[in-house]
Amino acid sequence: MAKGLGRRKFLLYSCTTLLTSLLLKACGGDTETTKTTTTPESPGDTIKVGILHSLSGTMAISETTVKEAEMLAIKEINKAGGVLGKQIEPIIEDGASDWPTFAEKAEKLIDRDQVTTIFGCWTSASRKAVKDVFESKDHMLWYPVQYEGQECSKNIFYTGAAPNQQIEPAVNWLLENKGKKFFLVGSDYVFPRTANTIIKEQLKAKGGKTVGEDYLPLGSTEVTPIITKIKQALPDGGVIFNSLNGDSNVAFFKQLQGAGLGPDQYPVMSVSIAEEEVRQIGKEFLVGQYAAWNYFMTVDSPANQKFVEAFKAEYGPDRVTNDPMEAAYIMVYLWKQAVEKAKTADDLNKVRAAAIGQELDAPEGKVKMYPNHHISKTVRIGEVRDDGLFDIVWTSDGPVAPIPWNQYVPATKGYACDWTDPNKGGKYKI
């Protein structure tokens, strides 16, 4: 948390804040918040949290729904009495699919709004952009999306999948069921490139072959050259492993179908396409294709039925749920449990310690927070069906423990993370 302000700094801060508030009222702004009388000296009756996602730009197709899931959890918790007898007050900021903006908004939420934690980001580029902010200010981020691993920060809790909980099982399933030749397609930033490094090492170890690899700038729809390369590299068919993010997927799947590359010969395994993206791209372009996640809307459990019904009641009967939304929803509850165990929302060291070991009967199944700040997760592979939802065609035997440092990549093989032991921390040799 920010340190207390001196008298002169406080007066300057107050004047600046008043002026900013007047300007925002006059001109409008992109921050959403509820009414509060909280001041730096008087905590009031609320606990302020930040929500930081792309609500505009190329990533809005995915991140807007994640924000909605977090708001649903907050509404439910507040209705049930809040946290430590206080209501949660969300302050929402738009990262605008721009990584420097994410860093600026994170600083604003921490320094000006004095939130106790932030729920946010989607792309690894946005997470990397804010990581230094959270570490330099010793603050706390909860991150809800599957990612490439190769990271283990004291200041971040990861509720999406590590590669061994999504990418690696997907590759194994494809090798056993769909073929040995892989063409790798991704957006040109850290997650797809690191994920594909892992996949290439895994294919070497498992007897598969990478026949091609290509990237698109995030937000680009110029997919024709990639389609041409796929046809040249896989003239008789083969596996396409897709780590495109955002609305590039719209053009990719439409042109893939238009070129006659259907799922019978060219099965696509996606790791960033879920129910919401299927709905927005058009299910007719995706039927028969695959995705690897830990949660699908079609998971058959009482916890998931409750989650789906609550989301539809809040946002509309035609809406769908997906994996990042579920991971975002449960991370608010895991934070709540940690705060209640710590008996404080403000002492972040106590909250961090209390978060480890937290368990939840989540819509995806049982989850548990590990000392490496990642959670155990059940792995699932789904096939897009005619209604735009997924038939679950494979499920792991149970929750899979998270491994942030990849064991296929030579540089990180044999390393682990443990924040309960000061001699181990974020990276140590097993």
Question: What this model shows, in words?
Answer:
The protein is α/β, with parallel strands linked by helices and 430 residues long. The chain is built from twelve helices and 17 strands. The strands form four sheets. It has a seven-stranded mixed sheet, sandwiched between helices. Strands 1-3-2-4-5-6 form a six-stranded mixed sheet, with helices on both faces. A two-stranded antiparallel sheet has the order 12-13. It starts with 6 loop residues before the first helix and ends with a strand.
Structure, briefly:
With 430 residues, this protein is of the alpha/beta class. The chain contains 12 helices and 17 strands.
Give the distance, in angstroms, between the N- and C-terminal Cα atoms.
Answer: 33 Å
Low-confidence runs of at least 5 consecutive residues: 1-42
Class derived from helix and strand content: alpha/beta
Helix content: 25-40%
Query: Numbering strands along the chain, what is their spatial order in the largest sheet?
Result: 8-7-9-10-11-14-15
Radius of gyration: 22 Å
Summarize the biggest pleated sheet: 7 strands, mixed
Overall 3D shape = globular
Write the SSE topology.
Blueprint: H1 7-27, E1 32-33, E2 46-53, H2 60-79, E3 87-94, H3 99-111, E4 118-120, H4 124-136, E5 141-143, E6 156-158, H5 167-177, E7 181-187, H6 190-206, E8 209-216, H7 224-233, E9 239-243, H8 248-258, E10 268-270, H9 275-281, E11 290-293, H10 302-315, H11 323-342, H12 348-355, E12 359-362, E13 365-368, E14 380-384, E15 390-395, E16 415-418, E17 425-429
Parallel strand pairs: 2-3, 2-4, 4-5, 5-6, 7-8, 7-9, 9-10, 10-11
Antiparallel strand pairs: 1-3, 11-14, 12-13, 14-15, 16-17
